Amino acid sequence: MARTLRERGIDLLVLKQGIDTFTPTGRLPFHMLGAIDEFQRELIVEGTHEGLASARARGRTGGRRPTLTATQVRMARQMYDSEEYTVQQIADTFHTSRATVYRALTDEGDFAYVVYRSGKTKTDSDGRHYDETGQGDRSKAQYDADRMYWPLADHKRPHAKAMVYVVDGIVKRIRPNEPDLDAWKRHGSKWEIPVSDPILDPAEIAEKFPTLGLSIGDALPAQRGKLREHLAL
To answer: Is the pTM of this model over 0.85?
Structure first.
């Protein structure tokens, strides 16, 4: 096992001072030197941690500045989700590399789960309403249709903060997701997502999801063939 620099330093000091560690008289100063050195090192570490904590409290995290700002990351994700831009085109837009864009796209971040629907009510073989039920935003039928059943990777569940339902290109409802992940129920590869009552007040939506950029009645046309997407928050 490799010896630490501190241990090598103590050995060198022992040799220079001619300390004989084979005798009790020699071992005593050897251990005292080691204890003093360890004490000094712990003081340095403690001071470093205090300095870093003080810097973080002032908003300084240190290290290399990120290539893309938080706003640019959200824009890059939206461009990628639109399926209108390649990764190279996104990289060229922000004057960065493809690798940086890929890292931005794969980094975990909070998002809203956007669902695109038509206004025509449908019923499955079990009699359960899905898509738009026509029975009111707060009805049990609409609640059941809104929470069941959505494909989502398990590691993305903590980041799914809201469900946004777009009907015929117009934002109809925004439901916050319940934060308790134990309440989520798996059905094969899909999830029954526990959602709250819809937020219909624009001021409340803006307060709860300030970076969503959507409100009730906003136009959000769906791309052909796209039923769902993740909108970065």
So the answer is: no
